Amino acid sequence: MIDWFFTTLKTYPEIAIFLALALGYYFGKFTYKGIGLGSVTATLIAAVVIGQIGITVNQPLKAFSFLMFLFAVGYAVGPQFVRGIASSGLPQAIFSVVQCIFSLVACVVVAKLAGYDLGYAAGLYSGSQTISAAMGLSTDAINRLGLPPDQAKALLNNMPIAYAVTYMFGTMGSAIVIAIVGPKLLGIDLVAACKDYEEKHGGGKKQVGGPGTAWTRWALRAYRVQPGGKAAGLRVAEAESIVPDARLFILRIR
Known about the structure:
With 254 residues, this protein is mainly alpha-helical. Helix content is 67%, strand content 2%. Among the domains are: 84-196, no CATH class; 221-253, no CATH class. Strands 1-2 form a two-stranded antiparallel ribbon. Helix 1 (2-11) packs across helix 2. It is extended.
């Protein structure tokens, strides 16, 4: 039975991909004291485990999946990036430059001390900094070095190994440092600081109908209008005009 399962995954690597996704999204939702793997890291771990049976993914599928990942990341963070640049562009740009320099220098130093080749070093940088796009750039750079095919292939094969191992720490380690270690070192109450930041930059306190109520646990809320209430017998537009200064949206009154 198990041999048939392994043979099926090797023959149809698409099944292995979706199996890794399913396992990653299932186990990624579990947390311990507020810290969890997340769907991305859990999927990566699942893929590493499944890949031990020797599944070979062809190059077009690798390229397509990687491009789809980059598209999804850009599509998700694009609006936030534009808003951040528009509101506080110069400080963010300076911080990004400093962070990029220190991240690159740290990875180069560690790679030199550990005696890594170009493949492992590129994977270390991509995974530890969770910069998946660096994998594509590193692959293109190695292919342009003019190395013998066997040597170039060995470097390219080493890259995802270092990436998979260090990516786990890049996500979990940063979460632990930011959520637990960092606030303790700085003596900051993280919950209170986040609440204060949200009130300052989110348009005020979370009042009924205010800007701070954009996120809710429920997609729809329904209220019973008491007889004689202010909204009793009114149309939708009339009910919304009761609080003209608040962002109140009513779908239907019946």
